Amino acid sequence: MRRAVAELVGTAFLVAAVVGSGIAAQRLSPEDTGLQLLENSLATGAVLVALILALQPVSASFNPVVTLVERVLGRVDTATAAVLVVSQVAGGLVGVVVANLMFDLDAVSISTHDRGGSGQLLGEVVATLGLVLVVFGALRSPRIETVAFAVGGYITAAYWFTSSTSFANPAVTVARMLSDTFAGIAPASVLPFVAMQLIGGGVGAALVLLLHATPAAATAVPLEESP
């Protein structure tokens, strides 16, 4: 239960930060899309570092792809993975509603921001593949806080070097559909994005298995640990 609550709360704050900072950026820098993206990416990277550091002793994946890769690697069982994924999706929905309300918008507004095309879809594969490599590679470090800084730094950078601005998270993608703002994504674009994220996660899991023969638990504190 504690792990599920941690995933729900963490994903809710993550989505609130992504959507909320996008709305703030849009209002503060209405004529400069590049500056809006910079503001949005810095806020997202910073909140990821904070949330992972705070919740890592309980559970700090905040991403169904990461949880599914954990299942593939045997770090969690199927039932636990299912509960955590549901909690992540639910947390994302809570977060987007809260973000909308904080900025005096309707609790739910369906996004009209179409995202797609082969370039952006490839960008989601690359973004998610890279995220999986960073997460499970950083877990090999003897200093567990390395994961938080590695993930926060990677996502901040991936906002810029991927054509899709690095959603790399099915729970966040679904939630962002419910905000017709800077960070939103149109419903028709959600399924292709999620499909590419799952492909990227699968390739990432294969690379982790190839590159790291020794389980992470043998060299570092697990990503999810129930105290």
From TrEMBL:
<keyword id="KW-0812">Transmembrane</keyword>
<keyword id="KW-0472">Membrane</keyword>
<dbReference type="GO" id="GO:0015250">
    <property type="term" value="F:water channel activity"/>
</dbReference>
<comment type="similarity">
    <text>Belongs to the MIP/aquaporin (TC 1.A.8) family.</text>
</comment>
<keyword id="KW-1133">Transmembrane helix</keyword>
<protein>
    <submittedName>
        <fullName>Aquaporin family protein</fullName>
    </submittedName>
</protein>
<feature type="transmembrane region" description="Helical">
    <location>
        <begin position="121"/>
        <end position="139"/>
    </location>
</feature>
<feature type="transmembrane region" description="Helical">
    <location>
        <begin position="81"/>
        <end position="101"/>
    </location>
</feature>
<dbReference type="GO" id="GO:0005886">
    <property type="term" value="C:plasma membrane"/>
</dbReference>
<dbReference type="InterPro" id="IPR000425">
    <property type="entry name" value="MIP"/>
</dbReference>
<feature type="transmembrane region" description="Helical">
    <location>
        <begin position="182"/>
        <end position="211"/>
    </location>
</feature>
<dbReference type="InterPro" id="IPR023271">
    <property type="entry name" value="Aquaporin-like"/>
</dbReference>
<dbReference type="InterPro" id="IPR034294">
    <property type="entry name" value="Aquaporin_transptr"/>
</dbReference>
<keyword id="KW-0813">Transport</keyword>
<feature type="transmembrane region" description="Helical">
    <location>
        <begin position="48"/>
        <end position="69"/>
    </location>
</feature>
<feature type="transmembrane region" description="Helical">
    <location>
        <begin position="146"/>
        <end position="162"/>
    </location>
</feature>
<dbReference type="Pfam" id="PF00230">
    <property type="entry name" value="MIP"/>
</dbReference>
